[in-house]
Amino acid sequence: MAALRSVAVLLSAASILIVVAAAAANAAPAPATAPAPPKAPPPSAAELLHNDPAYIAREHRLEAMFGNARDRDPTGQVAREHAQALAERRACADKACLDSWFRRREAALKQYVEN
What is the pLDDT of residues 31-70, one digit of tens each? Predict the structure, then answer.
């Protein structure tokens, strides 16, 4: 009888260990992976004009085109248009706006240089 009790206690203890181990395995949260740091926001148009070598070079070419067009325009229209265009560029907030502005301005200045 005592041996039977010992076996029952051992079985009971073993089943408790199994249940506890299974519960611990199910309850243990998976190791949390750290969330990826947020992406840095894209640079603003002003930052691109100041820091990006491609935009700096494009600005220099545009200024040369403006100088040539201004020299050929006795009415002052080119200077007025360029001042207005620069105000529009200051309103640009991103790369797409800046690229569009450069394309439009280069096309506008080419008409004066090609004539």
Answer: 678 788 888 888 999 999 999 999 999 999 999 999 999 9
For residue 24, the tally of other CB atoms under 10 A from its CB is 9
- Mapping DSSP to helix (H, G, I), strand (E, B) and coil, where does residue 21 land? helix
Q: Angle 53-72/77-90 helices, nearest 10 degrees?
A: 160
The model scores a pTM over 0.90: no
Q: How far apart are CA 55 and CA 70, in angstroms?
A: 22
What is the spatial distance between Cα 95 and Cα 93, in angstroms, rounded to a whole number? 7
Contact 72, 112 (CB under 8 A): yes
Where do runs of H (alpha helix) occur along the chain? 2-27, 45-51, 53-72, 77-90, 95-114
98: Cα separation from own chain's centroid: 16
Residue 84 Cα to chain centre, angstroms? 29
Number of alpha carbons in the 13 Å side-chain half-sphere of residue 48: 20
